[in-house]
Write a structure and sequence with these properties.
The radius of gyration is 19 Å and the shape is elongated. The protein is mainly alpha-helical. Strands 1-2 form a two-stranded antiparallel sheet. The protein has one domain.
């Protein structure tokens, strides 16, 4: 289902080709396509994992306390932390 492990070495190879041939448009295009496939597969895997695991139950079972979420203040782009209630 997921090609993450198969695509990772291909992304690395495509990146090396771009570094060795910076002006080659086909190499850059291949790198971008391969990178997008890899990224899309990671996103799909994360979505499925998030749906399969109850975060609160996992945190309780592992004995860890939740990390407060990060909020970006849109007017100043400053990041601040808040404690979820």
């Amino acid at each position: 289902m997921f090609q993450v492990t198969q695509l990772a070495p291909q992304v690395v190879k495509a990146g090396r080709v771009v570094l060795l041939n910076p002006g080659e448009i086909a190499a850059r295009d291949h790198f971008e396509v391969t990178k997008k496939q890899w990224s899309d597969n990671l996103d799909q895997m994360q979505t499925l994992m998030d749906g399969a695991i109850d975060t609160q139950m996992f945190m309780a079972a592992s004995g860890n306390k939740p990390i407060p979420p990060v909020v970006t203040n849109r007017t100043s782009n400053q990041r601040s932390f808040y404690q979820a209630v």
